[in-house]
Amino acid sequence: MTAICSTAIASRLTTTNLASVALVVMGIWPTPVVRLMVVSTNGTGPYPSLIDPTLGMKFSLPGQLRGPECRRVKQQSIALQRKLEPWFGSFDGGDVTELAVVLRVDGSLGSFGPEGVENIAIDESTLTCDVVVADKGWADLHDEEIAEILRTRVLQAIDACLRTAEIAYDAQVLETASY
């Protein structure tokens, strides 16, 4: 496979500390998305970053926790966000360029209210929602159980947001990306 690099990209590459550039194909037929990935040489291992950050959609999974035992949920949310970021990076959301699913995790210090997705809003190019996750006795659960509870709730929230914004997507591909 031969890669053609524009002058603008080539000039950016020569002014940075890079080990290599690779073509990465994300997505599936009939519309695979090809991205140039930059691999850093700063000693942090392969650190891919998109050359053009305007492509795809940004995804974030911030949260509020109601108890110290909820820290384990936050660890799993970070892992889930990292799994979903490549899918969102190759996903075209049209005018929506960012999705933020805000976790509200109940714990020993209180509750955020009934479990579910709420407060779905579109502000310019940002789509946001809150997802309340009821206390499941976080301290007594295994990491795999916490990850599955969180994955289920976050996928429900993403689905609700994208449907509200009338953005078509393949739910099965997204679910596969979340594992």
Number of helices: 4
- Give the helix/strand class: alpha/beta
How many strands, which pairing sense, and closed or not: the largest β-sheet?
A: 5 strands, mixed
Q: Which descriptor suits the 3D outline?
A: globular
Structure in words:
The protein has 4 helices and 8 strands, in the order αβββββαβββαα. A hairpin with a 2-residue loop joins strand 7 and strand 8 (about 125-135). Helix 2 (about 70-90) packs across helix 3 (about 145-165). The protein has 2 domains: about 5-50, no CATH class; about 60-175. It is of the alpha/beta class and about 180 residues long.
Keywords for this entry:
179 residues; alpha/beta; 2 domains; 5-stranded mixed β-sheet; 3-stranded antiparallel β-sheet
Q: Concise description?
A:
The chain has 179 residues and is α/β, with parallel strands linked by helices.
Layout of helices and strands:
Blueprint: H1 7-14, E1 18-26, E2 33-40, E3 48-50, E4 58-60, E5 63-65, H2 71-89, E6 98-105, E7 116-123, E8 126-133, H3 143-164, H4 171-177
Parallel strand pairs: 4-6, 5-6, 6-8
Antiparallel strand pairs: 1-2, 2-3, 7-8
Helix pairs in contact: 2-3
